[in-house]
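Throughout this chapter, every protein is written as a compact record of paired, labelled lines. The reader may check this reading against the record printed directly beneath this paragraph:
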Amino acid sequence: DEIAQKLKITKGTVYEMIKRGDLDAHKIGKHLRISSSQFEIYLLKSKGYGNNYEANIISKEDEKIANINSVNIFVNTDLKGQAKISIRPEDIILSKGILVSSARNVHKGRVTDIILDGSTSKVVLDIGISIVALITRKSLIEMNIEKGIELFAIFKTMSVKVYK
């Protein structure tokens, strides 16, 4: 019922989506349940998001890495081989230097574009792949971000969604 309400569709349509494989669900007893992460993955697949990539998931020294065109992104998943990953632009921190933090993903890149939208700004960096970070216009101004400068894109392993 909750998913049907959120998507503004009927409960029957939700069951059809599960049957087609569009929406993952799991059984608890006789009931179907959809976790928040299953719903979020459905939204990623259907609506699209910034920062969607085809990746090869590999294991290296007890860590999982999504390799995209020689860019390695640390991920938390049980999946192996070909998969898709997504990183929400608002989960990416931009920095002019390396921060000491728990974030495993720290990628140096060059600003290739800035898209202004009201009080927010999308900053596009080339880190070997194009990645978009969403920041406030105030942060853009205070950090003096402009095309061509080098920045670090920083995000946690847990911020990377991995799905088939």
Q: What stands out?
A: The two ends are 25 Å apart (CA to CA). The chain has a mean pLDDT of 92. The first strand starts at residue 26 and ends at 28. The CA atoms of residues 5 and 73 lie 35 Å apart.
